Amino acid sequence: MNETELVAKIKKYLKSVQDCFFWKEHGGQYGTAGIPDIIVCYRGRFIAFEVKVGKNKATLLQELTIREILRADGYALVVRSVDEVMNVIKAFEKE
Questions:
Q1: How many other CB atoms sit within 10 Å of the CB of residue 14?
Q2: Residue 95: is its pLDDT beyond 90?
Q3: Radius of gyration of the chain (CA)
Q4: 3-state class (DSSP) for residue 39
Q5: Given a cut of 90, is residue 69 above it in pLDDT?
Q6: pLDDT for position 20
Q7: Helices (H), 1-95
Q8: Positive or negative, the Cα torsion across 76, 78, 82, 86?
Q9: Cα–Cα distances in Å, from 83 out to 21, 86, 87, 88, 92?
Q10: Three-state SS for 78?
Q11: What pairing do the DSSP bridges indicate for beta strands 75-79 and 38-42?
Q12: Is the model's pLDDT at 29 over the cut of 90?
């Protein structure tokens, strides 16, 4: 599976989550470099998912952006499966 396919599966899952707002951040000349792939607002929490597959790693700029989000009391991480995203959402259900 490539990153585009995994992003599509994650979006499909997020569409099924009640009280969840999200969008796919698009890169390129009109986007902001380093912003994670999927931005979520769930139950008042800011969550950002950087999607990677296989041995792909976040770039230095992506890692720095994730750290900045964490410093601002948001939640951000690299995910490699829909299950990882589900686990994050389930953790916020308990709050």
A1: 22
A2: no
A3: 13
A4: strand
A5: yes
A6: 96
A7: 3-15, 60-71, 82-93
A8: negative
A9: 19, 5, 6, 9, 14
A10: strand
A11: unpaired
A12: no
**What amino acid occupies position 12?**
K
Distance spanning both ends of the chain, measured CA to CA: 33
CATH number of 3-93: 3.40.1350.10
Q: Between 3-15 and 82-93, two packed helices, what is the crossing angle to 10 degrees?
A: 30
Helix (H/G/I), strand (E/B), else coil: 77: strand
Where are any strands of DSSP class E within 5-65?
20-24, 38-42, 45-51
Q: Assign 33 a pLDDT band (cuts: 50, 70, 90).
A: confident
